[in-house]
Specification:
It is built from six helices and 13 strands. By secondary structure, the chain is of the alpha/beta class. Helix 3 links the parallel strand 2 and strand 3. Helix 4 runs parallel beside helix 5. The chain is globular, with a radius of gyration of 22 Å. The two termini are 40 Å apart.
């Protein structure tokens, strides 16, 4: 655990951000069609969360921002807006390393469901020629022997952000580059790396989502070296920590 008497020695804090986990968490909190949450000051938010009694004299030593560039369909400014934000974040915080993953096309196939009533309900096949020829589905037998409809959809899958978070976190911890680590994610796949990191340095786990923190990411405050803590963000956290509208040559996109 960090010695609370060592107040003269700064606590070097590394911040590790799963960018899409943060983005979708913020969108769930604040609303997809609303402004005032996308231009997020990660450094300011991270600093505001630190309790100096647990981590004395904290200094943000580095921010590792793990993301992937993507141009959304029917949104010609999306890629430019994303690059503008990254440029502004690097300029504003000054100690940001951007680790890029990839967006990969993929095709998913599964039983057709109806979500119009809230909880997904399986759509049963009406049988025979009642399925329109233009509908891209085929009739199959479901898991309980019922007639069902099988559909395929084309989508994109973000790859690499969680791996980049883990790699940079563990390299920095094991090479003694940081004295404490803050991880922005609610991805349960990070369970083992966080557990390992807690044996070396105090770790803060920040859940960007409205849903409860994944059970696999939890542990005890005294595990390993101790000094760990957990926090679930609220909409006010995102809205209260926005960068200035103009950061160097980077202007906040309209609607952000």
């Amino acid at each position: 655990m960090i010695d609370p008497n060592a107040v003269k020695r700064p606590t070097r804090v590394g911040v590790y951000v799963d960018a899409f986990n943060v983005y979708y968490g913020a969108r769930a909190h604040c609303g997809k069609g609303t402004a005032g949450w996308r231009w997020l000051d990660i450094g300011g938010l991270a600093t505001s969360l630190i309790n100096p009694r647990l981590w004395p004299n904290p200094v943000l030593d580095r921010i590792v921002y793990c993301t992937a560039l993507r141009e959304r369909e029917n949104d010609p400014s999306s890629l430019a807006d994303q690059e503008t934000y990254i440029g502004a974040l690097k300029h504003h915080c000054g100690n940001v390393l951007v680790a890029y993953g990839k967006y990969m096309p993929r095709t998913s196939t599964g039983l057709l469901v109806d979500r119009s009533g809230g909880r997904p309900r399986q759509v049963f096949s009406p049988g025979g020629d009642q399925v329109p020829d233009w509908l891209p589905v085929r009739e199959v037998i479901g898991p309980q022997g019922e007639p069902a409809l099988l559909a395929s959809v084309a989508t994109f899958e973000e790859k690499g952000s969680d791996v980049n978070v883990v790699n940079h976190l563990l390299v920095d911890v094991l090479t003694h580059q940081v004295d404490a680590a803050m991880v922005f994610s609610n991805d349960s796949d990070l369970s083992l790396p966080l557990k390992m990191a807690r044996t070396w340095v105090p770790v803060a786990t920040v859940n960007p989502h409205a849903m409860p923190t994944a059970g696999d990411l939890r542990g005890g405050a005294a595990d390993g070296v101790g000094g760990h803590w957990w926090r679930r963000l609220r909409s006010d956290d995102f809205r209260a920590h926005q960068m200035p509208s103009q950061v160097g040559s980077h202007a906040r996109p309209t609607g952000w």
